[in-house]
Design brief:
The complex is a heterodimer of chains A (243) and B (272).
Chain A lengths: L1 H13 L7 H41 L8 H41 L2 H7 L4 H39 L4 H9 L5 H26 L5 H30 L1
Helix pairs in contact in A: 2-3, 2-5, 3-5, 3-6, 3-7, 3-8, 5-6, 5-7, 7-8
Chain B lengths: L1 E10 L2 E11 L4 E6 L5 H9 L6 E6 L2 E2 L5 H8 L2 E4 L11 H12 L4 H14 L15 H13 L5 E5 L7 H18 L2 E6 L2 H7 L2 E6 L2 E6 L10 H7 L3 H27 L5
Parallel strand pairs in B: 3-8, 3-9, 6-7, 7-8
Antiparallel strand pairs in B: 1-2, 1-4, 4-5, 9-10
Helix pairs in contact in B: 3-4, 3-5, 4-5, 6-7
The chains are: A mainly alpha (243), B alpha/beta (272).
The complex binds adenosine-5'-triphosphate (ATP) and magnesium ion (MG).
Adenosine-5'-triphosphate binds next to helix 1 of chain B.
Chain lengths: 243, 272
Amino acid sequence: MLQHFGNYLLFIASLFYRGEGPKIIFNRTIDEAILIGINSVFIVAIVSTFIGAVTCVQTAYNLTNALIPRSTIGFMVREMTLLELAPTITSIVLAGKVGSNIAGGLGTMKITEQVDALEVMGINSASYLVLPKILAAVFVFPLLVIIAMFLSIGGGYLAGTLTGEVTAQEYITGIRSDFIPYNIVFALIKSVVFAFLISSISSFRGYNTSGGALEVGESSTKAVTFSVIAILVADYLLAQMLL
Amino acid sequence: MIEIHNIHKSFDGKKVLDGVSGVFETGMTNLLLGASGTGKSVLLKCIVGLIKPDLGSVTFDGTYFTNNKLDIRQEIRRKIGMLFQGSALFDSMTVEQNVEFPLKMLTSMSKGERLDRVNFCLKRVGLENANTKMPSELSGGMKKRVGIARAIAPNCTYLFCDEPNSGLDPQTAIKIDELIKEITEEYNITTIIVTHDMNSVIEIGDKIMFLYQGKKLWEGSRDDIMDTDIRELNDFIFANRLMRDARKVEQEEEEEAESIEQNSKLDDPGSI
Ligand SMILES: Nc1ncnc2c1ncn2[C@@H]1O[C@H](COP(=O)(O)OP(=O)(O)OP(=O)(O)O)[C@@H](O)[C@H]1O
Ligand SMILES: [Mg+2]
C-alpha cells in the first residue's frame, strides 16, 4: 500500500521531468478538455437534475411542521446541492466515466506498445499522455460542477412546483435566503481537488498496466474504486479544513 | 555502429538473454535470427532501453546508452526509428497522422513539408490511398507497412524493425526487405532487423546474428550461413523443404563438378 503510494508520487513527479514543450501540452490539453467535457455533460446533466428533484421531494416530505415556512425547501435544496451533492456526486459519476476511460485508454496503449513507441521516439510518454489529461480534468470539472449546480436547483424547482409541494415564489425565496458565496468557492475548490485525484489515480493505474486485455479491464475497475475512495476521504478532509 | 556487451535478462527467474555480445555495423542490414521465443524482441528492446537489462551495456556510435542520464538517452532515441512486432500504431490517429507524428514531434518541418514526406513514405511501402483510414480499418500486413512508414519518416540514424515482413505475402515481403536495405545503404544508417524468414536472410542478410535459447550461437553473412556445421543453425535453416532442396541441388552440383574433374583427370592421357 505504502509502496503504491510512493510509486504514485514518483509517477506524478515524472510528469514534470523533461516533458514536451508548453505548446504541445497546451494543444493536447484542449483536445482532452473537449473530449472530457462533451462526453460527460449529458450524464452530469441527468444526474444533477434528478438529484435536485429528489432532494426537493424528500425535504418536502420531511417538512411536516406547519411553523416552518415552505421556502425552507428551496433553501435546503440549495444548501445540499451546492455544498455537497453537486461537486461530490458529479465527481463520483465522473470517476466512473472519465476515470475508467483514462485507465482503459492508457492501459490499452500500454499493452499494445503504443507507449513504448512514444518512448522510443525520445518522448516522455507519461508527460505527453497524462499531463494534458490532468490539466484538462482540473479545468473542465469545475465547469461541469457549475452546470450541475444550476441544473440541480432547476431540478428541485421543477419537482417542487410540478408536485405542488412548493410554489415557485416560495422556492425562489428559499434559494435566495442566507446565501453564503464562500460555499461556491468551497465547492469549486473541491471539484478541482477531485479532478486531480480522479485523473491522476486513473492515469497511474492505466499507465502501469501490463499483460493483456484482462488486465486493462482490471485497471479500469481499480481506477474507479480508488478514485471514489480518494474522493470521499478528500471530501471529509476538505470539509474539516476549509469549513 | 551499435555495440552490445554481455546483455543478460531474466523474467521472474527465467533466463531469456544469457550474455549476448556483438556489433551491428553502419550501412549494413544486421539481422537477428532465431526461433520463436528465443528472445529476439527482448534483445531489441534491451538495445533501445525499453527493457532494462539485468547486466550488460549498449553503446550507440561510442556513446554509452544503458543507465546513462535520461537526457542523453532521449537525445539518442530521437535518432531511432522503430517498427514494433505488433506495429504499435496510435489507434486514435489516422494513418496519415501516425506517419506524421514523429515529424511533428522531432523535426521543425512545416505542415506542407510534413505531408509531402508522409505521402512519400506511404508510397514507398505501397499504401498510397490509405491516408484517412484508421488503424482498426487496416489488415495486419497494412499495419506493418504503416509502422515501417512511421519508422522511416524522420531520417533516423538507427532503424530497428521487429519482423518487418511477417504477415506479408512473399512479393510484398521482398519489396519491404529491399526498401529497408535501400534506405540503409542510401542514408548509411545502422539497421537491425529481427526475423525468422529465410528469404530475408538470403536477400538482405549483410550481417547475421543467430540467437539460440538466449545465446549467440553464430555470426556471419548470408554467404557463409549455408555452410556451417552448427546443428541448431542447420536445423533452423533447413527446416524448410525448399531450403533442403536448394542444399541438395548445390551438393549434387558439387559432386558432379568433382566427378567431372576426376573423369577429366582419368581421360587426360598426359596424367598417366
Ligand atoms: N515482459 C515479459 N515478461 C515476462 N516474460 C517475457 C516478457 N517479454 C518476453 N518474455 C519471455 O521472453 C522470451 C522471449 O520472448 P521474445 O518476445 O523476445 O521472443 P522472440 O524471439 O521475439 O519470439 P517471436 O519470434 O515469436 O517474436 C519468451 O519466453 C517470453 O515468454
Ligand atoms: Mg518477437
